Amino acid sequence: MSDIVEEIRVGLAHSLVGALKAAGEKDLIKVDHVPDFTVEAPREKEHGDFATNLAMLLAKPARLAPRKVAEILVRNLARNPAWVEKIEIAGPGFINFYLQRDWVCQAIPRIIKESENYGRVKLGKGEKVQVEFVSANPTGLLHMGNARGAALGDSIAAILDFAGYAVTREFYINDAGKQIENFGLSLEARYLQLLGKEAQVPEDGYHGGDILESARGFLALEGDRYLASGPLERRCALVKYALAEKISAIKKVLEDFGVHYDVWFSEQSLHDGGEVQAALDYLKEKGWIYEDEQALWFKATSFGVEKDEVVVRANGIPTYFAADIAYHRNKFQRGFERVINVWGADHHGHVARMKGAVAALGYDPAALEVVIMQLVRLYKGGEIVRMSKRTGQFVTLEELVDEVGRDAARYFFVMRSPDSHLDFDLDLAKSESNDNPVYYIQYAHARICSILRQYGEQGGVMPQPSSVDFIILQEEYELALARKLADFPGEVASAAANLAPQRIARYLHELAGLLHSFYNSHRVITSNRELTMARLLLVEATRITLKNGLGLLGLTAPERM
RNA sequence: GCGCCUGUAGCUCAGGGGAUAGAGCGCCGGCCUCCGGAGCCGGGUGCACAGGUUCGAUUCCUGUCAGGCGCACCA
């Protein structure tokens, strides 16, 4: 675990604070506290390797011109570390630090040494985090929205794991409630139809062909013996059969998508185990529940929500919300310090009252974080495809993987911010699959593998980093590549802190671009032995970083393409 | 009407309190006697509009306009 960029930033920040203190003791700068300043890599490389805005922030409290403050600070810096080559004051008052040209190359041996762990950071300090995602109704197939949730949730979980959290991936199975009733009625209608009886799938039921398939499967297994049974018994048997079938299908599709869960949590189990009742009793005891028109209501308005919410209907059946309250209580009772839910935008109205419920349960509502992802709009043949369970017309995750490919599909979802309204053009994703950015990144990896393979075939042996002097790497592309490699741990930390996988996607694309540029300008295997050694390790470090980053997005790192 | 998300290049989207705002696609030119051309190099008058905070705003705040999604004793 090492982050050379972070080490330098912290070192420079310490030096600057020291300079400010020294200047203060000489009465050159009089301020009562150190402002919250930054030490960052400037966008323009002409502005040095690192720059700070400290002088500009001090100007006002110190009543001095920013550049004057900068001058004083620079003069009062303790002896510069040897690796700082030059310090300049520029622009409105930035202090720019120029480091020795090869500082970035120090990252290379570290990367080789840490290998598959390069990029791991300690941000999470082992905190227990749960990421719940997809959690689709098990009454149907997974659609594009679920696919986005799967790609995002899995990647967020992987990034948090890499950033030092103890992560649990969980799928909440909505195997209770009204949609299960509807599911049963729809199955029953198909079953009866197959047996030549008059029956209608309810208007708001499930009309997809998969329901018919389930009914057929049930018929093959059980025959017509449920024709004579009571409807309740019939529907129970149908639901039990179809649900098991659906859930295992969902598991398989997600596995094929590269998504593995630690826990599959049944909503029904909360009812059966009395946890829903226990949670409601607890809230009742705390005074957050009242009765009105024979229904029980949660006082969401006490927690800043617009209106109160029904938890038990007049007919005595608890709502989905009641189960969700019990579920979240269960999560916190399991010891999760952070609970992250990935939800579609159509559920955003649920966020405020859920947080209210968490607070009512006596937990910190900030411990519940909800990543709201905007909806996916699907285009096919230049037209919007409306996804609807009623008509049974939607593109499934399975079809998506078949048509577009797992890696391309996952990258497409994860390369964009969850906040972006995603237009997914199926034809484009298919027809241009060779131009898909994911291949650009994977190609960089395969290309490096090819070089290393070739070197091995020539009888070459990978050098030990300690035996190589990286000062020989002087070319602009070499240094830019090494610089980018050094950034990886910081990118992981930032992606984790912001729950933003798209940052990793962008980083990898940029890294791959630098590799390709380097590759097209310079040869790795040359007649200069020293140079060859250094470049071999440079590309090997790049390969490791690409592979680790691709892993965070759930993508493969192929050695050949 | 109220709430959440979004308005950045022709298109799809990154980025984000700082010094000259990026990528992909598309379009136009170049680059293989040489480790993989799924590649490289070059070509750009763009932050919806109006106020405000700030030394500094495309970024933060308020409002306007436009689009998406919610506002059930569904989940």
Automatic annotation (TrEMBL):
It catalyses: tRNA(Arg) + L-arginine + ATP = L-arginyl-tRNA(Arg) + AMP + diphosphate. Residues 441-561 form the DALR anticodon binding domain. One of its GO terms (biological process) is arginyl-tRNA aminoacylation. Its main location: cytoplasm. One of its GO terms (cellular component) is cytoplasm. Keywords: Aminoacyl-tRNA synthetase, ATP-binding, Cytoplasm, Ligase, Nucleotide-binding, Protein biosynthesis. GO terms for molecular function: arginine-tRNA ligase activity; ATP binding. Residues 10-99 form the Arginyl tRNA synthetase N-terminal domain. The keyword Cytoplasm applies. SUPFAM superfamilies: Anticodon-binding domain of a subclass of class I aminoacyl-tRNA synthetases, Arginyl-tRNA synthetase (ArgRS), N-terminal 'additional' domain, Nucleotidylyl transferase. It holds the Pfam family tRNA-synt_1d. It is found in: Cytoplasm. Its EC number is 6.1.1.19. Signal peptide: none annotated. Transmembrane segments: none annotated. PANTHER family: ARGININE--TRNA LIGASE, CYTOPLASMIC (PTHR11956:SF5), ARGINYL-TRNA SYNTHETASE (PTHR11956). Monomer. This is arginine--tRNA ligase. It comes from anaerobic digester metagenome. The gene is argS.
